């Protein structure tokens, strides 16, 4: 398990810079990509989405998701190539990386940038005065709800499976 911890610290966390930056870019480029991730009062005050807003939301949300998933597979594959191992170890790497991304999202993106700094490029028009922008607890509740935990485990299983198949194939 020491190899997993070392890999997380030296490889996985630095690789998470890419999806983190893509998440920030997607937040600024399209509020629609994450409309359902905002507190209820913010969602209610957001202007209705135009078809162009929806397209941009799908585009930038999709690019972020592909960046995150690709990084999970890549890091897990690197671990398997350098340390050998089983699917179980690959899953441990992917899950640990997923948890690290969850913590980066919670503490850096949600709490520091969204709740504390609140840069204008993240704030959809008409939501500037919503109380949800300071709701730190909302983000914790979203991160630890059952469906989020299940989704993170399933994503980790799937990405570890893809990495393991690639490892066996090459």
From TrEMBL:
The keyword Transmembrane helix applies. This is Uncharacterized protein. Keywords: Membrane, Transmembrane, Transmembrane helix. The chain crosses the membrane at residues 6-27, 58-79, 91-114, 149-169. It comes from Corynebacterium durum F0235.
């Amino acid at each position: 398990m020491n190899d997993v911890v070392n890999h997380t610290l030296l490889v996985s966390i630095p690789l998470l810079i890419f999806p983190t930056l893509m998440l920030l870019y997607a937040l600024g480029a399209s509020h629609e990509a994450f409309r359902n991730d905002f507190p209820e009062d913010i969602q209610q005050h957001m202007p209705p989405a135009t078809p162009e807003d929806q397209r941009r939301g799908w585009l930038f949300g999709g690019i972020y998701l592909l960046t995150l998933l690709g990084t999970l597979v890549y890091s897990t594959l690197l671990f398997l190539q350098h340390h050998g191992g089983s699917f179980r170890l690959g899953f441990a790497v992917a899950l640990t990386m997923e948890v690290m991304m969850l913590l980066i999202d919670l503490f850096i993106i949600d709490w520091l940038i969204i709740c504390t700094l609140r840069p204008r490029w993240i704030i959809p028009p008409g939501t500037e005065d919503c109380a949800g922008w300071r709701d730190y607890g909302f983000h914790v509740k979203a991160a630890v709800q059952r469906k989020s935990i299940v989704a993170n485990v399933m994503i980790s299983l799937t990405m570890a499976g893809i990495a393991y198949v690639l490892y066996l194939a090459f």
